[in-house]
Amino acid sequence: MKSQGGISYSNAAVAACPKHLLQFAVDQRYDDYTSVDHAVWRFIMRQNTFFLREYAHKVYFQGLLNTGISFERIPRIEEMNDILAKIGWGAVAVDGFIPPAAFMEFQAYKVLVIACDMRQIHHIEYTPAPDIVHEAAGHAPIIVDREYSNYLQRFGEVGAKAMSSKKDFELYQAIRHLSILKERPNADPKEVEEATKLVEHRQKTLGEPSEMALLSRLHWWTVEYGLIGTLENPKIYGAGLLSSIGESVSCLEPEVKKIPYSIDAQTHAFDITTKQPQLFVCRDFQHLKDVLEEFAGKMAYQVAGLEGINKAIECNNVATCEYSSGLQVSGIFEEVITDENNSPIYLRTTGNSALAFRGKELEGHSIDYHKDGFGSPVGKW
Known about the structure:
The protein has 381 residues and is an alpha/beta fold. It has 3 domains: 3-159, Orthogonal Bundle (Phenylalanine Hydroxylase), CATH 1.10.800; 166-296, Phenylalanine Hydroxylase (Orthogonal Bundle); 316-377, no CATH class. The protein has helices at residues 12-15, 19-22, 35-55, 59-67, 77-85, 100-108, 132-142, 146-159, 166-183, 189-204, 211-224, 239-242, 245-250, 285-296, 300-303, 305-315, and strands at residues 3-4, 7-8, 90-94, 111-115, 227-229, 234-236, 257-260, 278-282, 318-322, 327-338, 344-357, 360-361, 375-377. The strands form 4 sheets. Strands 9, 10, 11, 12 and 13 form a 5-stranded antiparallel beta sheet that branches. The protein has a 4-stranded mixed beta sheet with strand order 6-5-8-7. β1 and β2 (7-8) form a beta hairpin. The chain is globular, with a radius of gyration of 22 Å.
């Protein structure tokens, strides 16, 4: 397989990814895995499959069979790409958490991002940091189901268009730092405590959740921690549960509240560093798609117009406004002027901005040229 810098270019899905995504790809450094790492992998795979045979969605074991994931050793990314290519997907190795917007866009291109770290033996039941067990043994087997695969890709497409705020990014950075600390051997308890307080502070001061924050909650309660079937007898399909020896058992106990899945799941925040007090149960994978489309229908890129522009201004982060002509303006939107009918007639960005036409940057209109922002009339004249 042709591979360079951790990127398997012979996999069609990976090769189709734009450069701004592939910058997150890293080498797996397979030879760095120790005999203990491989032993932990074997133990988790055997324990999980023994328990999950009764409690996981039926597609999980078919997926393990179809993907050919070894129970004996940690898989190589190159092998994963050979396997995933058969169902139209690919994979890239990344360094732990990556920004949510990039994560979503990878999904839109049908590429799994695989954090290649291996959990420490004292975190064998659950790790707060993404690792190769979670990605390879949790996500990959489920996407052999066509309906679920379509849902995951569509989620990526919607997520890539979601508005995010600066506070979202600050929270992401705090969570990433805390998860790394908690997975580090002999981590300083005081440092962990300070990092935990920072996460809690940023969660409390997040303000009105952005589209990305709300969408991340739907992603968490489905893709990561989803149950399927009935409230009385749900099955596991979420990768976070499938890859956790401890929580895959405890999640089905009566103490964990089971709630019918709906768009209301967006109102439930989550804590990535601990077990979840409630979980959501969908009827089937089409149910997931229906809720996603319900959410997407209210997003800025769908409602457009003045409401969409105002959402972009409120986020105070880089956004893209697309004109009916196909012209796209990207930057931090600062001002919109309306006419007597409250229709936008002028908009303006501040700082680095760029112009594109249907996804391709216009020559001479990069952030180098529009470094102080861009403004123009909009609408019919």
